[in-house]
Write a structure and sequence with these properties.
The protein has helices at about 5-75, 80-100, 105-120, 120-140, 145-180. By secondary structure, it is mostly helical. Helix 1 (about 5-75) crosses helix 4 (about 120-140), helix 2 crosses helix 3 and helix 2 packs antiparallel against helix 4 (about 120-140). It is elongated.
């Protein structure tokens, strides 16, 4: 055999080798892409389910909050002494707020005054008393009041837990992608 025949045979073998290599790379890449798409689909399905769960929790929270609001309204209407006490408390809040900030206060000054108002001992004491008396009046109005409050508290805890999980997952997201690459 001469050199020309060897060269002609080498080109088809080289082309065949290149073709097989390309095919092998493609066959390796396709399952990885499918696995990534499957992963993404699972994450989307999970997020969709979580969104449905959140919507359902929100709806339940609104239902219980509405019931409690209605009970409170009835309790206030049926208890003039409590209604008067609530009005006096609100007036005291307004008075103290005016004392703490100038008339043309900036937004920052208003926020600062509100924070200071929350720390006011007299308001805190009267607020606690009013809250306790209101709760008792609501329980007298509807014996299920405590049950509604407990359910609302449970829903809020679930919301908080889901938010924490989401923020943790979002924080880990980019790190996970870097590890997979």
């Amino acid at each position: 055999m001469d050199g020309k025949t060897t060269q002609k045979k080498a080109k088809p073998v080289k082309g065949l080798f290149l073709g097989l290599t390309t095919l092998a790379c493609f066959l390796i890449a396709v399952p990885q892409t499918s696995a990534q798409q499957s992963n993404e689909n699972q994450q989307q399905n999970q997020q969709g389910q979580e969104s449905q769960d959140l919507a359902q929790l929100k709806q339940q929270a609104q239902k219980y909050a509405q019931k409690l609001k209605q009970i409170e309204k009835s309790a206030m209407e049926n208890n003039p002494k409590l209604k008067k006490k609530k009005k006096e408390y609100q007036e005291l809040q307004k008075k103290k707020m005016k004392e703490m900030m100038p008339e043309n206060a900036s937004r920052k000054e208003k926020m600062k005054a509100q924070m200071a108002l929350r720390q006011d001992k007299e308001l805190r004491r009267k607020g606690k008393e009013l809250q306790q008396e209101s709760l008792e009046a609501m329980k007298d109005e509807d014996p299920k009041t405590q049950e509604y409050l407990d359910k609302l508290t449970q829903i809020r805890k679930k919301f908080q837990k889901i938010r924490q999980q989401r923020s943790q997952e979002q924080g880990k997201g980019p790190q996970r992608e870097k590890m997979e690459q």
